[in-house]
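Open question from group meeting: does this chain pack into something compact, or does most of it stay loose? Before anyone orders reagents, we agreed to write out a predicted structure and look at it together. Recording both the input and the output here so the notebook holds the full record.
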Amino acid sequence: MFNRSTFLLLLIFLFCTAMLSQNSVYIDEDFTTMDSISYYKKCKGITKKCLQYKTDSLTVNKLSPMYRFGKLKVDEYDQIKTLIQSKSNNTKENKYIVIKYYDSIFGFERAEKIHAKHKITESFKRSSGKVYVRQVKSHPFNEDIFKEERADWQKRREKCIEKYEKRYPLDFVHMYKTEENALSTYVDFEWIKDQGAFKNKFFDVQNNYNLLIIKSDGEYFLSGGHLTNSRFEKLLKTDDWTKFKADLEASNTKNFTEGKGIFSKYEFYHNSKHCF
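Structure tokens returned:
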């Protein structure tokens, strides 16, 4: 598997290539270039994730797997376990380590800039019968609204932590790689900073995966999509993940375009009702 450094070198190479030819490139899961038609066709796969990285002169479109299973060596697991236990307030001897990962967290200034870019399309009809379309801001945003939204987010996350650490033998931690004036906007919320080990091992492709579940035998599961509480709990309640691995493999094929098992298509999903 390509690591983060290799991916960065590939981006530099593609940037130089694009300067001489086109301004958009498409990259397959194995980091080879592909044509746009094949790219968007593969993007329809239920277990695929299509990422986009932009510079002033280049747009990189990256196809990535949305889910992945793997296995850590004994010494790798021991190092991770020791690190988590040294940083977390939860000191129980647990069967699972659950990490909700954020590439970056930010304060009001950055949130305000991001919000300013978000607009919705509004159409209206004149008396002449002509229909006009314009873009307007989606909703008001200020520092008070930001604080309310952050407090609501923290309340929901704390409920998730309490729920799962009480019901299951696990450490549930929230981890970030970088932050921009953000930590002070959380009130008594436990964050763990990633010094690079987790980024390099599990989250090397930016914005791909955001959830990591590690079993005590070193087996792990990475998710970059929505995962309902019930599907998350199935993973915790099952010691042998062989069936889940088979379901993921089947969901990657044309025979199961709607997915299979815990990877099947959702009829309905709402973020506020689930922890992942």
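Observations to bring back to the group:
Helices lie at 4-20, 36-43, 74-87, 108-117, 143-167, 197-201, 229-237, 242-251.
DSSP finds eight helices and eleven strands in the chain.
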